Amino acid sequence: MRKSLERRMSVNLPVCAGWFACVLIALVFALLPAQAQNQPVRVIAFGAHPDDCDLGAGGLAAKYAALGHKVKFVSLTNGDAGHQLQHGVELAKRRRAEALEAARRIGIEYEVLDNHDGKLLPTLEVREQVIREIRQWKADIVIAPRPSDYHPDHRYTGVLVQDASYMVIVPNLVSDTPPLPRNPVFLYYSDRFTRPQAFRADIVVSIDDVLEKKINMLDAHVSQFYEWLPWTEGLLEQVPKDPTERKTWLATRSRAERKLQPEWREALEKRYGAQAAHVQHAEAFEITEYGHQPSEEEIRRLFPFFPESGPRP
Ligand SMILES: [Zn+2]
Questions:
Q1: Alpha carbon of 163 to ligand 1 centroid (Å)
Q2: Is the per-residue pLDDT at 18 higher than 70?
Q3: Distance 152 CA to ligand 1 centre (A)
Q4: What is the whole-number distance in angstroms between the Cα of residue 295 and the centre of ligand 1?
Q5: Ligand 1 mean position to 292 CA, how many Å?
Q6: Residue pLDDT, tens place only, 79-88
Q7: Is the separation of the CB atoms in 217 and 58 below 8 Å?
Q8: Strand pairing partners for 74?
Q9: Cα of 291 from ligand 1 centre, angstroms
Q10: Is pLDDT of 49 > 60?
Q11: Predicted TM-score (pTM) of this structure
């Protein structure tokens, strides 16, 4: 009996040692920030509707995807209220298909959650959906609207993501999904609202090189950019019928082309140096106070788009 136990132990010891080494290596890698291991940067962006992320960070996503980094867009509602003629399940189905096509065009993932459009509230249930999404994506960067946006769904998306930050590392919450080893960097999309405070451009990325890709992505949201939004603005008659002509028209719309704003120039020049003078289109982001606060070195690793020769602080 004892002999057989010893034999079993002598067989199992090397297996145990190997197993222990594996666990140790896995643990070390899990605790290191992804970007420190030359791993792809993992970005997850949240929007209230299935075109919000595209407008705020479509260019940034196209740049990451082109370099082999991983981006996922998540719409917290299914968009089933955003049209003048269609609604409900029919519209939700159409908008999900448009979002998936938009993602396909730039090489990212897109998920549309089945919460109703125009009725989003910062409930515990949706907060847990957000925590799960961030954890499952193993995000290094999380992007969301500011909670001072004009649309209630946008505002509550901002609140929900704020409420998920920090909680993503707490193991006792949403315990069906492993917590992140450390809090990601949380960013806000740019917006034009000034109360209670204006957007602050901390990170500005030129999208001149991917503007065509971004317009092509937006073009997939036919129900929005050629039907619903022009209808809300009284511009429906202006939209060309021909698919090529309407895409050209879309590229002239200010919400699509994202011209560089004067108040973004300082952050742009900080990282692009002399090249900043040539930048015409950009996307800007504010670093929130709720997530990891990245050093300048980390920012340059997480946003691998700035010229090597750019000035450093
Ligand atoms: Zn929206």
A1: 20
A2: no
A3: 9
A4: 31
A5: 26
A6: 999 999 999 9
A7: yes
A8: 46, 111
A9: 24
A10: yes
A11: 0.88
